[in-house]
Design a protein that fits this description.
Structural class: alpha/beta
Largest sheet: 5 strands, parallel
CATH superfamily of the largest domain: Tetrapyrrole methylase, N-terminal domain
Bound molecules: S-adenosylmethionine
CATH class of the largest domain: Alpha Beta
Radius of gyration: 23 Å
CATH architecture of the largest domain: 3-Layer(aba) Sandwich
Strand order of the largest sheet: 3-2-4-1-5
CATH topology of the largest domain: Cobalt-precorrin-4 Transmethylase, domain 1
């Protein structure tokens, strides 16, 4: 009989968040598949466990995945762990789970630490409907397409980000959603210097633009757009005026200002741009 793949969440900063069930599972399985064995060994040491480990990370999923599957099919139980948080959530695991499901191997997902849920719950923004966007692409074109697809999104949006890319991401978010859009910047969650800053995209950008990159990892929880019926309808003239304000007072390039107001109002970007440069 085939074994079981257990998805075992590990702490995102506070060892106390490792659940008793996670510890029991790590103790009970035949082997552990780890994103980085040097990171996971610390958890095993903390629990006083010795367990065979194999490495399963983003760049070896194609070779390591089938090997893990073979062992599962041969009857061994495996726990999948990543460096922090819930496996398969912006972490290696998604493909292994798909492989196991396809092969009829049982997958058991343990609930536990996950940065996105922790941040969303603390954000103070609506949690009833939300969308998880993970990391924005580095590639400019893909990043722009991703952000453009979210322009009219009314659900709360959750993004992951590394500290050295924070300012660039805040800048792109402000350009896409407007500087007044509310955001919760959740940093170092569950750690000693945990911080949740609830502000607007414009203020967040001002705050971080001038200083060296902040330390720690971030989750950005961004308010969704106001439903169209709630948004005040602007005349074309008012919309052009808003383009000029964004250009003059917030230093947005005219094209970007026109794009933002077009998204907000439904007027054509080209038309807004043309009228704004004539002023
Ligand atoms: N699988 C993990 C989970 O369940 O949250 C996510 C892994 S993803 C590779 C790493 C990203 O999660 C970081 O760049 C950051 O955006 C977020 N993250 C992880 N730990 C965090 C923490 N303690 N505080 C804030 N964000 C965190």
């Amino acid at each position: 009989m085939a074994g079981t793949l257990y998805l075992v969440p590990t702490p995102i900063g506070n060892l106390g968040d490792l659940s008793p069930r996670a510890a029991e599972t790590l103790a009970a399985v035949d082997f552990i598949a780890a994103e980085d064995t040097r990171v996971s060994i610390k958890i095993l040491n903390h629990l006083g466990l010795k367990k065979p480990m194999v490495s399963y990370y983003r760049h070896n999923t194609e070779t390591s995945g089938p090997q893990i599957l073979q062992r599962l099919l041969a009857g061994e139980d495996c726990a999948l762990v990543t460096d922090a948080g819930t496996p398969a959530i912006s972490d290696p695991g998604e493909e292994l789970v798909a492989l196991c499901v396809e092969a009829g191997v049982m997958v058991v997902s343990l609930p536990g630490p996950c940065a996105l849920v922790t941040a969303l719950a603390a954000s103070g923004l609506p949690t009833g409907r939300f969308t998880f966007e993970g990391f924005l692409a580095m590639n400019k074109k893909n990043r722009r397409e991703h952000l453009d697809s979210l322009r009219g999104e009314t659900r709360t949006m959750v993004f992951y980000e590394a500290p050295h890319k924070l300012v660039a991401t805040l800048s792109d978010l402000a350009e896409t959603f407007g500087t007044d859009r509310r955001v919760a910047l959740c940093r170092e969650l569950t750690k000693l210097h945990e911080e949740v800053i609830r502000t607007t995209l414009g203020q967040a950008l001002e705050r971080y633009r001038e200083q060296p990159p902040p330390r720690g990892e971030f989750v950005l929880v961004v308010e969704g757009a106001a439903p169209v019926e709630d948004a005040p309808a602007l005349t074309l003239e008012q919309a052009v005026e808003r383009v000029c304000i964004l250009y003059q007072e917030q230093n947005l390039p005219m094209k970007d200002a026109a794009r933002q107001v077009a998204a907000e109002t439904g007027f054509q970007k080209k038309e807004l741009y043309r009228l704004a440069v004539q002023r």
